[in-house]
Amino acid sequence: MKKKQPNNQRITALYARLSRDDEKEGISGSIQNQKAILEKFASDNHLPNPRFFFDDGYSGVSFTRPAFMEIMELAEQGLVANLVVKDHSRLGRNRLVVGQLLEEDFVRLNVRYIAIMDNIDTANGVSDIVPMQDLFNEWHAKNTSDKVRRVMQSRGNAGIPLTTNVPYGYKKDPVDKNRWIVDKPAAAVVQRIFQMSVSGLGPTQIAKKLRSEGVLTPSEYQRGNGVNCPTKLPEYPHKWCSHTVAEILDRQEYVGDTVNFRTYRQSFKLKKQLDRPQEEWKVFPNTHPAIIDRETFALVQNLRQHRRRPTRTGAVSMFSGLLYCADCGSKLGYSATNNYKREQAYFFCSGYRKNTDLCSAHYIREKVVAQLVLEGLQRLLWYVQVYEERFAQEQMERFGLQEKRELTAKRRELDKAKQRVSEIDQLIQKSYEDMTKGLLSEERFATLTVSLETEQKQLKAAIPEIEASLEATTDKAADLQRFIERARQVTRLTELTPEIVHEFIEKIVVSKPDKVDGERHQRVDIQYNTIGLWCAPSPEEMEKLFQEHLAGQHKKTA
To answer: Which H/E stretch holds residue 354?
Structure first.
């Protein structure tokens, strides 16, 4: 049981609050205004031990405000005699919580509550009008929230950035606050984070490296007035964490786009931001200077989609997330222990590990994968660079046939769906006629109708998706040209890097090994980004092409 404090030792809490919305509306005065009124009232009425508390920029519908929570903690300790506010809405705008405070909590804690302008004093009892006043206060909060939401909706649809805090790496233009300009020291850190991701490091490893180098976190950098110097704030530990790094790697704004409507709130009372599905985002391209080029950003997203989780020993493979089982479709897991050398690290079917009856191990060593990928890329890149026109023509012919098959299948699916929707209308009409003639019972008609309408509803929902898929046929020629341009840049490939692997390799499909004449054979299909499986010339043809190329080079130098 709490010890009851003498009245002369208990405080009078003078509480002021101002939300951002109140500030825009120009109501309730400033914090200093409220303070002056509260202190004068406490002095005129001889209230003991006045102590001022305030929450600036906090909504009235939430009660997790720092100053208000401090007052309630002191009240729980029996240290608060009076709580005084300028007007009742300063206490809060959630009628249910305010009602509980007045009718239960303040009574239990022996706290006298006074709202000066509304003539409320619990020492004289609470008027029946107060609950109605709480309802109006809540309605005002909702109305203000609706106004703000409409303004934000309008701004967001116009391409004006909605985020209050500018992403790390940018700062607001002093002339036009709606424009972002590059903050060079922070932008250099962002570029380095992306480069470390491309080189194969995950968010946890990147955060560890930044911590060890004493690089300021985004919040420390902001507190340090924009000076990216590790000695600027010696009292703050540089607590880079994987979450901070991951957020930077995920932000599309770094390629120069404005992204609005990422999040939403379920209610004006619930302040927690919830994530919207990506298809509901509103993206405005090239609205500010880019820090990261689009190719690097896309590569990082691909790398993060195929996250390479370290083994227990901390080993990471550049191929993790890319290998798939040819039989069950599961990803191949990576294993590297301290019991043997790194050359013995291997991949195995994760489906087999969960259930040995489902599949087989599909065991393959990492060094074998590396050798196959390196040789495959060397052949492909050489062929693209030497026979660029021939390669482009081959791929476009293949794309044409593949695309034609896909479009034919989708059109057939669309026609079938539309035809079935029409058939269902006719079936329902016929069933109704059969029921009126007594050929079908009402119960049977109801069951049949529900089933048909459910099927029709699903088809009607699917039809727009199929139509959109037909309209959104990708420009294969543009994709292929980008692939060729990147292939031209890799002049001499002697070893693999995570950047090269994930830039050119989409997936690697591993079949189970077989024994032929006592020797182990295993099929490995490498699927490349943009072009998929490459139908490479045979070794004999490749050798012939190589000799032709050498002969041509000799003629040029002769």
So the answer is: helix 350-354
pLDDT tens, position by position, 37-80:
999 999 999 999 999 999 887 877 778 888 999 999 999 999 99
Bridge partners of 84, per DSSP, are 14, 114
Residue 35 has pLDDT above 50, yes or no: yes
Say which residues have a Cβ less than 8 Å from residue 1's Cβ, sequence separation at least 6: none
Structure tokens, 290 = 């880019």
CA torsion, ordered 83, 59, 273, 64, to nearest 10 deg: -10
Question: From CA 238, how far away is CA 240, in angstroms rounded?
Answer: 6
Q: What residues are paired with 80 via a beta bridge? A: 11
Task: Single out the residue of 80, 68, 76, 69 nearest to residue 15, CA to CA.
Answer: 68
Are 137 and 60 a contacting pair, CB within 8 Å? yes
Task: State the Cα–Cα distance between residues 326 and 509, nearest whole angstrom.
Answer: 6
H or E stretch at 464 = helix 442-471
What's the whole-model pTM score? 0.46
The residues, ordered by sequence, that sit 6+ positions from 151 with a Cβ below 8 Å of its Cβ are none
Q: How far apart are CA 533 and CA 525, in angstroms?
A: 7
Give the list of residues 6+ apart from residue 442 with CB closer than 8 angstroms, or none. Answer: 435
Beta-carbon-side half-sphere exposure of residue 62 (alpha carbons within 13 Å) = 16
| Contact call for residues 52 and 82 (beta carbons, < 8 A) | no
- Residue 309, both tokens: 């989780």
**Closest by Cα among 389, 342, 359, 347 to 524:** 347
- CB count in 10 Å sphere of residue 29: 16
Does the structure show a pLDDT above 60 at 146? no
Ordered DSSP codes for 372-436: HHHHHHHHHHHHHHHSHHHHHHHHHHHHHHHHHHHHHHHHHHHHHHHHHHHHHHHHHHHHHHHHH
Q: Tell me whether residue 385 is exposed, middle or buried, using C-beta atoms within 10 angstroms of its C-beta: 0 to 12, 13 to 18, 19 or more.
A: middle
Confidence category of residue 555, pLDDT binned at 50, 70, 90 = low
pLDDT digits (tens, 9 = 90+) for 473-503: 555 667 788 888 888 888 788 888 888 888 8
Q: Please give the Cα distance from 184 to 169 (Å, whole number).
A: 7
User: Which pair of structure tokens corresponds to residue 11?
Assistant: 């405080």
CA atoms of 469 and 465, how far apart (whole Å): 6
Full DSSP string of 291-330: SS-HHHHHHHHHHHHT-----TT----TTTTTEEETTT-P
Closest CA to 512 of 372, 367, 318, 347: 347
The 3-state secondary structure of 489-556 reads: HCCCCCCCCHHHHHHHEEEEEECCCEEECCEEECCEEEEECCCEECCCCCHHHHHHHHHHHHHHHHHH
- Return the structure tokens found at 218: 């985004």
